[in-house]
Amino acid sequence: MSYNVVYQDIGLRYYKEAWEIQEEIFKKLVENKINKGQNAAGVETYDPGTLIMVEHPHVYTLGKSGSENNLLVDYIQIKARDAEFFKTDRGGDITYHGPGQIVGYPVFDLEKIRISLKEYIHRLEEAVIMTIADYGLAGSRLEGATGVWLDPDICGKTRKICAIGVKASRYVTMHGFAFNVNTDLEYFNYINPCGFTDKGVTSLQKELGERQDFNEIKLRVRNNLRKVFELNWVN
Protein backbone atom coordinates (compact mmCIF):
# COMPACT_ATOMS: atom_id res chain seq x y z
CA MET A 1 0.00 0.00 0.00
CA SER A 2 1.58 3.28 -1.13
CA TYR A 3 1.52 6.51 0.86
CA ASN A 4 0.70 9.78 -0.93
CA VAL A 5 3.35 12.45 -0.49
CA VAL A 6 3.89 15.97 -1.82
CA TYR A 7 7.54 16.64 -2.68
CA GLN A 8 8.95 20.13 -2.03
CA ASP A 9 12.52 21.07 -2.88
CA ILE A 10 12.82 24.51 -1.27
CA GLY A 11 16.48 25.06 -2.14
CA LEU A 12 18.79 27.06 0.13
CA ARG A 13 16.80 28.36 3.12
CA TYR A 14 17.66 29.63 6.57
CA TYR A 15 16.94 27.07 9.27
CA LYS A 16 14.17 29.09 10.97
CA GLU A 17 12.33 29.63 7.69
CA ALA A 18 12.44 25.92 6.83
CA TRP A 19 11.35 25.02 10.38
CA GLU A 20 8.30 27.29 10.03
CA ILE A 21 7.39 25.72 6.69
CA GLN A 22 7.47 22.19 8.07
CA GLU A 23 5.66 23.23 11.29
CA GLU A 24 2.77 24.63 9.27
CA ILE A 25 2.46 21.36 7.32
CA PHE A 26 2.89 19.32 10.52
CA LYS A 27 0.15 21.19 12.39
CA LYS A 28 -2.27 20.84 9.50
CA LEU A 29 -1.66 17.09 9.31
CA VAL A 30 -2.11 16.68 13.08
CA GLU A 31 -5.30 18.78 13.08
CA ASN A 32 -6.69 16.66 10.26
CA LYS A 33 -6.09 13.57 12.39
CA ILE A 34 -7.72 15.13 15.45
CA ASN A 35 -10.77 16.05 13.34
CA LYS A 36 -10.81 12.51 11.94
CA GLY A 37 -10.33 13.66 8.37
CA GLN A 38 -13.18 16.16 8.32
CA ASN A 39 -13.31 19.92 8.03
CA ALA A 40 -15.48 22.25 10.14
CA ALA A 41 -18.48 21.51 7.89
CA GLY A 42 -18.08 17.78 8.40
CA VAL A 43 -16.83 17.23 4.85
CA GLU A 44 -14.22 14.50 4.49
CA THR A 45 -10.73 15.80 3.72
CA TYR A 46 -7.35 14.21 3.11
CA ASP A 47 -3.91 15.69 3.71
CA PRO A 48 -1.03 13.77 2.15
CA GLY A 49 2.39 13.66 3.74
CA THR A 50 5.14 16.02 2.60
CA LEU A 51 8.82 15.47 1.95
CA ILE A 52 10.81 18.70 2.18
CA MET A 53 14.36 18.74 0.83
CA VAL A 54 16.49 21.74 1.72
CA GLU A 55 20.02 23.05 2.07
CA HIS A 56 20.83 25.40 4.95
CA PRO A 57 23.34 28.20 5.46
CA HIS A 58 25.70 27.47 8.39
CA VAL A 59 23.72 26.61 11.53
CA TYR A 60 24.08 24.54 14.70
CA THR A 61 20.97 22.92 16.14
CA LEU A 62 20.55 21.37 19.57
CA GLY A 63 17.98 18.65 20.25
CA LYS A 64 15.71 18.86 23.30
CA SER A 65 17.66 16.15 25.13
CA GLY A 66 21.06 17.53 24.14
CA SER A 67 23.63 19.44 26.16
CA GLU A 68 24.99 22.89 25.36
CA ASN A 69 28.30 21.61 26.71
CA ASN A 70 28.69 19.87 23.35
CA LEU A 71 28.96 23.30 21.73
CA LEU A 72 32.69 24.00 22.03
CA VAL A 73 32.62 27.71 21.10
CA ASP A 74 30.56 30.64 22.38
CA TYR A 75 27.83 32.48 20.50
CA ILE A 76 30.18 35.30 19.48
CA GLN A 77 32.52 32.77 17.86
CA ILE A 78 29.57 31.12 16.12
CA LYS A 79 28.50 34.46 14.66
CA ALA A 80 32.09 35.16 13.55
CA ARG A 81 31.88 31.99 11.46
CA ASP A 82 28.67 33.23 9.78
CA ALA A 83 26.66 30.57 11.62
CA GLU A 84 23.46 30.57 13.67
CA PHE A 85 22.40 28.51 16.68
CA PHE A 86 18.94 27.10 17.48
CA LYS A 87 17.45 24.95 20.20
CA THR A 88 14.92 22.63 18.56
CA ASP A 89 12.16 20.22 19.61
CA ARG A 90 13.66 17.21 17.82
CA GLY A 91 15.41 14.28 19.45
CA GLY A 92 19.17 13.90 19.52
CA ASP A 93 21.99 16.20 20.59
CA ILE A 94 23.86 18.92 18.70
CA THR A 95 24.63 18.85 15.00
CA TYR A 96 25.64 21.14 12.16
CA HIS A 97 23.84 22.00 8.93
CA GLY A 98 25.42 23.88 6.07
CA PRO A 99 25.93 24.23 2.31
CA GLY A 100 26.68 20.97 0.54
CA GLN A 101 24.53 18.95 2.93
CA ILE A 102 21.24 17.32 1.88
CA VAL A 103 18.65 17.88 4.59
CA GLY A 104 15.34 16.04 4.44
CA TYR A 105 12.27 16.84 6.51
CA PRO A 106 9.59 14.16 6.02
CA VAL A 107 6.23 15.16 7.53
CA PHE A 108 4.60 11.74 7.43
CA ASP A 109 1.67 10.07 9.19
CA LEU A 110 3.19 6.83 10.46
CA GLU A 111 -0.24 5.34 11.18
CA LYS A 112 -1.08 5.58 7.48
CA ILE A 113 2.24 3.99 6.56
CA ARG A 114 1.62 1.44 9.34
CA ILE A 115 5.07 1.53 10.85
CA SER A 116 6.53 2.39 14.26
CA LEU A 117 8.82 5.34 14.96
CA LYS A 118 11.74 2.91 15.32
CA GLU A 119 11.00 1.42 11.89
CA TYR A 120 10.62 4.93 10.45
CA ILE A 121 14.14 5.87 11.57
CA HIS A 122 15.43 2.53 10.27
CA ARG A 123 13.99 3.28 6.81
CA LEU A 124 15.47 6.79 6.75
CA GLU A 125 18.85 5.24 7.44
CA GLU A 126 18.25 2.58 4.80
CA ALA A 127 17.58 5.17 2.08
CA VAL A 128 20.97 6.81 2.75
CA ILE A 129 22.73 3.43 3.00
CA MET A 130 21.29 2.54 -0.42
CA THR A 131 22.44 5.89 -1.83
CA ILE A 132 26.06 5.67 -0.73
CA ALA A 133 26.24 2.04 -1.85
CA ASP A 134 25.87 3.40 -5.41
CA TYR A 135 29.24 5.09 -4.82
CA GLY A 136 30.96 2.03 -3.42
CA LEU A 137 30.59 2.88 0.27
CA ALA A 138 29.27 0.43 2.86
CA GLY A 139 27.05 2.39 5.23
CA SER A 140 26.03 0.80 8.52
CA ARG A 141 24.13 1.43 11.72
CA LEU A 142 25.78 1.90 15.10
CA GLU A 143 24.24 0.19 18.11
CA GLY A 144 22.81 2.72 20.54
CA ALA A 145 22.87 5.60 18.04
CA THR A 146 20.92 6.79 15.03
CA GLY A 147 22.28 7.79 11.64
CA VAL A 148 24.46 6.21 8.99
CA TRP A 149 28.04 5.34 9.85
CA LEU A 150 31.18 4.05 8.16
CA ASP A 151 33.39 1.46 9.85
CA PRO A 152 31.25 1.28 13.02
CA ASP A 153 33.21 -1.73 14.30
CA ILE A 154 36.70 -0.26 13.87
CA CYS A 155 37.78 1.69 16.94
CA GLY A 156 39.24 5.07 16.00
CA LYS A 157 37.86 4.97 12.46
CA THR A 158 34.11 5.14 13.07
CA ARG A 159 32.64 8.18 11.35
CA LYS A 160 29.15 9.48 10.65
CA ILE A 161 28.02 10.53 7.18
CA CYS A 162 24.35 11.14 7.95
CA ALA A 163 22.72 12.38 11.17
CA ILE A 164 19.09 11.75 12.11
CA GLY A 165 16.93 13.61 14.63
CA VAL A 166 13.14 13.44 14.61
CA LYS A 167 10.03 14.50 16.47
CA ALA A 168 6.67 12.72 16.40
CA SER A 169 3.27 13.75 17.75
CA ARG A 170 0.16 11.64 17.16
CA TYR A 171 2.46 9.57 14.93
CA VAL A 172 3.11 12.55 12.64
CA THR A 173 6.82 13.24 12.10
CA MET A 174 8.95 16.37 11.87
CA HIS A 175 12.65 17.09 11.33
CA GLY A 176 14.61 14.24 9.73
CA PHE A 177 18.09 13.63 8.34
CA ALA A 178 21.22 15.54 7.33
CA PHE A 179 23.44 13.80 4.77
CA ASN A 180 26.96 15.19 4.23
CA VAL A 181 27.72 15.36 0.53
CA ASN A 182 30.05 18.32 -0.15
CA THR A 183 29.84 19.64 3.40
CA ASP A 184 32.61 21.80 4.90
CA LEU A 185 33.58 19.44 7.73
CA GLU A 186 35.62 22.11 9.55
CA TYR A 187 32.38 23.34 11.13
CA PHE A 188 32.06 20.05 13.02
CA ASN A 189 35.29 20.90 14.87
CA TYR A 190 33.36 23.36 17.04
CA ILE A 191 30.95 20.76 18.47
CA ASN A 192 30.86 17.23 19.80
CA PRO A 193 28.68 15.97 16.92
CA CYS A 194 25.55 14.29 18.29
CA GLY A 195 27.24 14.32 21.68
CA PHE A 196 30.08 11.96 20.68
CA THR A 197 33.68 12.78 21.58
CA ASP A 198 35.30 9.61 20.22
CA LYS A 199 33.80 9.36 16.72
CA GLY A 200 34.40 11.31 13.53
CA VAL A 201 32.31 12.93 10.83
CA THR A 202 32.75 12.49 7.11
CA SER A 203 31.18 13.39 3.77
CA LEU A 204 30.76 11.79 0.39
CA GLN A 205 33.28 14.26 -1.02
CA LYS A 206 35.89 13.33 1.58
CA GLU A 207 35.38 9.59 1.14
CA LEU A 208 35.53 9.71 -2.67
CA GLY A 209 38.26 12.33 -2.91
CA GLU A 210 36.40 14.81 -5.10
CA ARG A 211 33.39 17.12 -5.13
CA GLN A 212 30.14 15.33 -6.00
CA ASP A 213 27.14 16.20 -8.17
CA PHE A 214 24.81 17.47 -5.45
CA ASN A 215 21.61 17.41 -7.49
CA GLU A 216 22.25 13.90 -8.79
CA ILE A 217 22.73 12.59 -5.27
CA LYS A 218 19.64 14.42 -4.02
CA LEU A 219 17.63 12.69 -6.74
CA ARG A 220 19.03 9.32 -5.68
CA VAL A 221 18.08 10.00 -2.05
CA ARG A 222 14.59 11.02 -3.09
CA ASN A 223 14.16 7.87 -5.19
CA ASN A 224 15.45 5.65 -2.41
CA LEU A 225 13.07 7.25 0.09
CA ARG A 226 10.26 6.52 -2.35
CA LYS A 227 11.31 2.87 -2.46
CA VAL A 228 11.77 2.24 1.27
CA PHE A 229 8.53 4.00 2.24
CA GLU A 230 6.54 2.97 -0.86
CA LEU A 231 5.70 6.58 -1.62
CA ASN A 232 3.39 7.87 -4.32
CA TRP A 233 4.24 11.44 -5.39
CA VAL A 234 1.23 13.77 -5.73
CA ASN A 235 0.89 17.44 -6.69
Summarize the structure.
The chain has 235 residues and is an alpha/beta fold. It has six helices and eleven strands.
Residue stretches low in confidence (pLDDT < 50, at least 5 long) are none
Q: In percent terms, what proportion of residues is strand?
A: 25-35%
In percent, how helical is the residue content?
A: 25-40%
What's the count of strands? 11
Number of helices: 6
Terminal residue distance: 19 Å
Instruction: Note the run of SSEs as H and E.
Output: EHEEHEEEHHEEEEHHE
Largest sheet entry: 8 strands, mixed
What coarse outline follows from CA principal-axis ratios? globular
| Class by SSE composition | alpha/beta
- Tell me the Rg in angstroms: 18 Å
Mean pLDDT: 91
How are the SSEs placed, and which strands pair?
Elements: E1 3-12, H1 15-34, E2 49-55, E3 59-62, H2 75-80, E4 84-87, E5 94-97, E6 101-107, H3 110-113, H4 117-133, E7 148-150, E8 159-169, E9 172-180, E10 200-201, H5 204-208, H6 214-229, E11 231-234
Parallel strand pairs: 1-2, 1-11, 3-4, 8-10
Antiparallel strand pairs: 2-6, 3-5, 6-9, 7-8, 8-9
